[in-house]
Design a protein that fits this description.
Length: 315
């Protein structure tokens, strides 16, 4: 992992992953990329390129220019945005993934790390302690694209020996960069509104339980999986990873321990149906056994840190 390319690097996960990758592998070894020119501050932090993953040439040019050997492929259209524009989600998530894999095959990339999602599951999947191997019949274009990505990654591994690795992320909670249009965004928005206004209108029902993970654990997932010894990996692109599961009401109650004046109302919209099609909790024993995955944050520790950091940020 000498020269690393991160696609979708300006997003919720990429903006934090790039910082940690640069700490570990060196500032100039990590090329951040996304669709647009970022703030001058981001440009100063290290190499940056514009890459549109729907264009194979766009990826190839940057891979050749920087002699890239590892790709963290994060560019995607998330679940809620994907239901509003399924054609865009297909193009970015499926064609984009295909382009990254093809460039990987052609340019002999050593490793590709790509997140899948709990959206790969669907209404027919067992909802509690969902196994790694189970029914994958999603009802959203985002979910369809994530199953396609998992299967394509596994195919390129078997057919071409391309080392593609991935996890099914639950909802990711963080304070640095706002989420980009997913169904679990309420678990971030509630913190902003609790601090700014003391009230929040939640777009899923109070009894909606979903698996979640705090960003430092999500970064650890990607970096640990990238470094894992391939000899120990029986899976490739489809590891369940879990950290915590809670209902919207339980999250509100945890925040109210620190911000007691918070008032939460519930007004479900189209995202409720998406949330209802996803698991409540995950069995991640394959990730724990094969590469030692173990989360550090539970709901209490995550909530305390989110409020502390956001209060500083929003001052
Ligand atoms: N955040 C979560 O809760 C979550 C949960 C499960 C899985 N994931 C997965 O993790 C990965 C990263 O997610 P995120 O939360 O950082 O998403 P995000 O929406 O915050 O960021 C995605 C980035 O991709 C960029 N992008 C969009 N189209 C592009 C294109 N054609 N070419 C290049 N870049 C493009 C966007 O500009 C954006 O900066 C995705 O694969 C996502 O499916 C995220």
């Amino acid at each position: 992992m000498k020269n690393i390319l991160v696609t979708g690097a300006l997003g919720q996960i990429g903006s934090e992953l790039v910082v940690e990758l640069r700490k570990k592998y060196g500032r100039n070894s990590v090329v951040a990329s996304d669709l647009k020119t970022p703030d001058p501050e981001v440009m100063k932090e290290g190499p940056y390129e514009i890459v549109d993953v729907t264009s194979r040439t766009s990826i190839e040019n940057v891979v050749d220019k920087h002699k890239i050997d590892t790709i963290f492929h994060l560019a995607a259209i998330l679940s809620a945005k994907g239901e509003q524009n399924p054609q865009l989600a297909f193009n970015v998530n499926i064609i984009g993934m295909y382009n990254v894999l093809e460039v990987g095959r052609d340019r002999k990339i050593q490793k590709i790390i790509v997140p899948s999602s709990i959206a790969a599951f669907g209404p027919d999947t067992p909802k509690d302690n969902t196994p790694n191997e189970t029914i994958l019949r999603p009802s959203t274009m985002y979910g369809v694209s994530k199953v396609a990505g998992e299967l394509l990654g596994n195919y390129y591994f078997t057919k071409y020996g391309l080392d593609v690795r991935g996890v099914r992320f639950p909802g990711i909670i963080s304070w640095k960069t706002p989420p980009g249009g997913g169904t679990t965004d309420y678990a971030v928005a509630i913190f902003y509104d609790a601090i700014k206004y003391g009230k929040y209108e939640c777009f899923v029902r109070e009894d909606t339980v979903l698996p979640m993970m705090y960003m430092p654990d999500a970064i650890k997932v990607l970096m640990d999986l990238a470094e894992a010894d391939i000899k120990n990996l029986k899976h490739h692109c489809d590891y369940n990873v879990a950290a915590m599961s809670f209902s919207a009401k339980e999250l509100a109650a945890e925040i109210q321990k620190i911000i007691p004046e918070l008032k939460v109302t519930y007004k479900p919209d189209f995202r409720q149906k998406i949330a209802d099609s996803w698991p409540r909790s995950l069995d991640d024993s394959a990730a724990r056994n094969e590469w030692g995955w173990k989360p550090e944050y539970d709901i209490k520790k995550m909530t305390e840190e989110m409020i502390r950091e956001l209060k500083k940020k929003l001052k």
